[in-house]
Specification:
69% of the residues lie in helices and 0% in strands. It is mainly α. It has one domain.
């Protein structure tokens, strides 16, 4: 879905900024995936913070397949950050967009996922 949002953003901006927005979205995706893998997934799996699910662990002591869950929830986090970055196209600098993507994929989206999917108060 991120590629679809990237193409949409490339279609609504001026032609001279197309390469810039493609680079920005690629970089945002890389930053979001790494940040979610490092911090966000442990937050999304519930509170209190489960440090066994941080990036340093390898999920071996768990019976369920956390790699599939990590892939799916990472896709949701990256897609949710890409929805808003479309409004930032041609309006914000690269460092602001990267900070937003980092914040969205490590704090905002994982907290909402914990509330909804990890037996939180919205489950």
């Amino acid at each position: 879905m991120r590629s679809g949002f990237t193409l949409r953003e490339a279609g609504i901006i001026r032609k001279r900024n197309t390469i810039s927005i493609l680079f920005t979205n690629t970089l945002e995706t890389c930053v979001s995936v790494i940040a979610y893998w490092l911090i966000g997934y442990a937050i999304a799996r519930g509170f209190p913070l489960n440090t066994d699910l941080m990036a340093s662990s390898n999920f071996d002591p768990y019976k369920e397949d956390h790699y599939l869950s990590l892939f799916f929830s990472c896709s949701v986090a990256v897609t949710s950050s890409s929805i808003v970055t479309g409004s930032l196209a041609e309006r914000a600098k690269l460092n602001i967009q990267l900070v937003y993507s980092l914040l969205m994929s490590t704090v905002i989206c994982p907290v909402v996922m914990a509330w909804v999917w990890a037996d939180g108060w919205l489950a």
